[in-house]
Amino acid sequence: MIRCSKKYMYGLCKNSQNCLETGEEKCHKPWPPRMTDEEFQLKQAELLKELPEEFHSTLSYLAYERGHSAGHEEVINILTDLCFNLQKPIQAFGKRIRTA
Questions:
Q1: Tell me, what's the pLDDT at 17?
Q2: Is pLDDT at 12 greater than 50 in this prediction?
């Protein structure tokens, strides 16, 4: 895998594909800008609205603890995984409670 040797604000470019503009084997594109606090809050709220409110603080805490050292993007990635993995079990539990 070929890595770009150019340095950008957040480190080395991690693009492993050929540059689309020049066709060269190295990419010269910088990483996209980091997520702002406002964008983070909006994305977090969007993800959590799919689950019962009782889970929000626990899921936010778990995602933050696991990913905050890597930035908002990683916290959102972890929260997305947690929410995705819990949606179906929570729905099934809700159905079981209603029928009991």
A1: 52
A2: no
